[in-house]
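input
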Amino acid sequence: MTTSSHADGDIAQRESTARSSLVHGLQGMLMGSADIIPGVSGGTVALILGIYERLVDSIHDVASAIASAARGDRTGARAHWRRADFALVLPLVVGILVALVIGSLVLPPVIERYPVVTSAVFFGLIAGALPIPWRRIADRGHRHYVLAALGALIAFVLAGLTPVSIDHPSLLVVFGAAAIAICAMILPGVSGAYLLLIMGLYEVTLEAVGALDLAYIGVFAAGAATGLAGFSKLLSWLLDAHQDATMAVLVGLMAGSLRRLWPWQDDVGGLQAPDGVDGAMLALACATIGLGIVVALTHYGERGERTQPTG
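output
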């Protein structure tokens, strides 16, 4: 009986682990899909799903383990490595990579063909996500409103910058752009894809991924890893030492980024009025769909947080 009980327990544990890995893989696909879309951040999706802090802390631990190993500090490297939540990170990475490859081929044509519909859906999604970090501020005061306003102003200005175009960027430029964009990809409210668009590398990066240009992809990945290692340490520290202030800034960044997702814009990003009542009603319906999606994802993420073991 004892042996049978242990066997049943092992099977149940393996099934639970498999389900968890599948869920995190799907979460990674959602994040990867968001990172492809200018104006939407994978960090926002992680925040909606309730895995944001775990993800940032794990990235920080992996980066710290690598840095400790490079210094010859094996004890420190092992300690950081053991703290990293690989049960979360590895499936997420797989899901993100799958979404980046598939999404780079599928999403841009859809966005180009249905700009108002897609922008409205994502507008509703980001707007619906604003209360998530705001609710995490334990003791809201005037300082948090000021920080949120500053974050909104920064994101609003960034969203209004005119994109440039670079047909044949040098690998050094690719490395630097990736290091900057990856920071935005884990920061809610700042779109890494839009930063690539501003820097002129959005289309060429999608083309490189779609064509499996290994040289370009390798340099981009190296730049992304470098930027992620440094920025994750700063972000992890901010979330630990100044969580309320950090959440206030994130709310502002997300609110300001809505400018980029306004469904009616001219060729240089200038905001325009809706193109008639029918167009406005369609956009409102699509925004409501986006809001419904974020409500459902938030409910699922909060339920996952409640059932997540803390040991």
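quick obs: Residues 173 and 230 are 18 Å apart (CA to CA).
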